[in-house]
Design goal:
The protein has about 170 residues and is of the alpha+beta class. The protein has helices at about 1-10, 75-80, 110-115, 130-145; strands at about 30, 35, 45-50, 55-60, 80-85, 90-95, 100-105, 120, 150-160, 160-170.
């Protein structure tokens, strides 16, 4: 049955395991008032990798040489690859990785809560992390031909009952 099939893909932590040997195949995501029961078929280029206290998603078809260091602006500064930055709630760093022009963003809170808790979010499971949810949505929109940046990678780092997150996308030139 579909429910049994869905349960068979769950680990003890509630994180779906990859069904396809070539990589992560997506989740049926839902939130709040409406749910999306469909699977987000990501194809063979999407990879999910455990890393430290969290995990990463990345598109190997766009960044086959992806490494966890890509989430660290200090790494890019050491490579002389930083092309600029934009400031808002936090800083988005623009970098060049070979032929790719990327935007690296660390998730930060805004508003009153952001003054108390800068960049941590309550852990409700991997499928509910902001970076993974945004990465998956952007991938679907981009593959659907909409004018959104191509998602390159996302990660979360778990610490107790909270997590922090980062997102890397291709940079859209204005």
């Amino acid at each position: 049955s579909p429910m049994a099939d869905r349960r068979s893909r769950q680990t003890l932590r509630g994180v779906p395991e990859a069904r396809v040997a070539s990589g992560f195949d997506g989740w049926g995501l839902g939130a709040g008032g409406g749910t999306m029961g469909e699977e987000w078929a990501l194809g063979p280029g999407a990879k999910r990798v455990e890393h430290g206290s969290g995990a990463m998603l990345y598109d190997a078809s766009r960044a086959g040489n992806f490494a966890p260091e890509w989430f660290d602006p200090v790494y890019w500064a050491g490579q002389g690859a930083i092309e600029g930055e934009a400031r808002g709630r936090g800083t988005t760093v623009f970098v060049r990785a070979g032929s790719l022009r990327l935007a690296l963003r660390h998730y930060r809170r805004g508003g009153l809560l952001g003054k108390l808790v800068r960049d941590t979010y309550l852990w409700r499971g991997e499928r509910h992390t902001r970076p993974f949810a945004e990465w998956l949505l952007m991938l679907r929109l981009h593959r659907g031909g909409l004018p959104v940046p191509a998602p390159i990678a996302a990660r979360y780092r778990l610490s107790g009952f909270t997590y922090t997150g980062d997102l890397i996308t291709e940079r859209i030139e204005s």
